[in-house]
Specification:
Protein name: Tripartite tricarboxylate transporter substrate binding protein
Structural class: alpha/beta
Distance between the termini: 71 Å
Number of helices: 12
Organism: Variovorax beijingensis
Family: Belongs to the UPF0065 (bug) family.
CATH architecture of the largest domain: 3-Layer(aba) Sandwich
Order of helices and strands: HEHEHEHHEEHEHEHEHEEHHEH
Strand order of the largest sheet: 2-1-3-10-4-11
Keywords: Signal
CATH class of the largest domain: Alpha Beta
Shape: globular
InterPro entries: BUG (IPR005064), Bug_dom1 (IPR042100)
Largest sheet: 6 strands, mixed
Strand content: 15-25%
Number of strands: 11
Radius of gyration: 22 Å
């Protein structure tokens, strides 16, 4: 009897670490280069999130293939909370419609953890453009013999889709000019090679504050807290431009629900920290947070919304 008891106790002791062990670090894979807006949000959150989780949070940049490289890295990782994927709406809700084949599937390979921030799109023009707002910009395009060139950060990007929505909803005569990223598009906008650009507020705020660009309208249901005097497109009579380049956190499939819940709680506590909120808002991004179920609903809704537009316009990744 004693021998049997000792064997059972020894077996239980062997199992204890596997059942109760928690990862000492959490690696957050960011599908974009260091120094970009998604990376900046991740690094703002890493230290306070680590304190909430009681472990070290490491940011690991895995850019490339429109987010697919980072996605594949995470989906092959252990589903124990030690590796998470931080990405924007593009890789999570747009890529499946842009590409015939993807090496990952959002429903099969990931579970939602939480929405993190919202980034609405802003229509901007160079300072010398006579249009004072989006309504005047649209009216001017209709008077031109040729379509007005508008740049985007790439085919199928949120800025590109915003251009398509603007053309459909307002009748504006627009020519889409894709760039490899927002930076070269903004440079050409300031140089006069293109006439307009949709971009995330965080990436444009410095140019607006420096007087290099002018804001014409916010593509959101409400005004942006960093730009309270800039009217929404809807306020200007332009309806149907509904863009939000949200960033969110996902975990590998089969991550236990209790692990997802613990990370979600820690993240939402981090986003509620006044110092963290102030830092994010100062850059022009809006901290939000959500339940895993709310993120799943948002991801499903936006996947369907953008798929419909992409099919209608026959847009394909280049």
């Amino acid at each position: 009897m004693i021998k049997r008891y000792l064997l059972a106790a020894a077996f239980a002791a062997l199992l204890m670490p596997a059942v109760h062990a928690q990862p000492k670090t959490t690696r957050i894979v960011v599908s974009f280069t260091s120094g970009g807006p998604v990376d900046a949000v991740a690094r703002t959150l890493s230290e306070p999130l680590g304190k909430e989780l009681g472990r070290t949070v490491i940011i690991d940049n895995k850019p490339g293939a429109n987010g697919a490289i980072g996605a594949v890295d995470v989906m092959k990782s252990a589903p124990d909370g030690s590796t998470l994927w931080f990405t924007s709406v593009g890789a999570a809700a747009i890529n499946s419609s842009l590409y015939e084949k993807l090496p990952y599937d959002m429903q099969r390979d990931f579970v939602p953890v939480s929405l993190v921030v919202n980034n609405v799109e802003l229509l901007v023009a160079q300072q010398g453009n006579p249009a004072r707002d989006a309504a005047e910009f649209v009216a001017a395009t209709k008077k031109q013999a040729e379509p007005t060139p508008m740049g985007s950060s790439g085919t199928g990007s949120i800025p590109h889709l915003a251009i398509e929505q603007l053309a459909d909803s307002s009748g504006a005569k627009l020519l889409h000019v894709p760039y490899k990223g927002a930076a070269p598009a903004i440079t050409d906008l300031m140089g006069g090679q293109i006439s307009g650009f949709f971009g995330d507020v965080p990436g444009l705020l410095g140019h607006l504050q420096g007087g290099r660009l002018k804001a014409l309208g916010v593509a959101s249901v409400k005004r942006h807290p960093s730009l309270p005097d800039v009217k929404t497109l809807e306020e200007q009579g332009i309806r149907g431009v509904d863009t939000n380049n949200w960033y969110a956190l996902f975990a590998p499939a089969k991550t236990p629900p209790e692990t997802v819940a613990a990370i979600n709680k820690a993240l939402r506590s981090t986003l509620a920290d006044p110092a963290v909120r102030e830092k994010l808002l100062k850059t022009g991004t809006e901290p939000v947070g959500s339940t895993p179920q709310e993120l799943a609903a948002i991801q499903k809704r936006d996947t369907e919304k953008w798929a419909k537009l992409i099919r209608a316009k026959n847009i394909r990744a280049e």
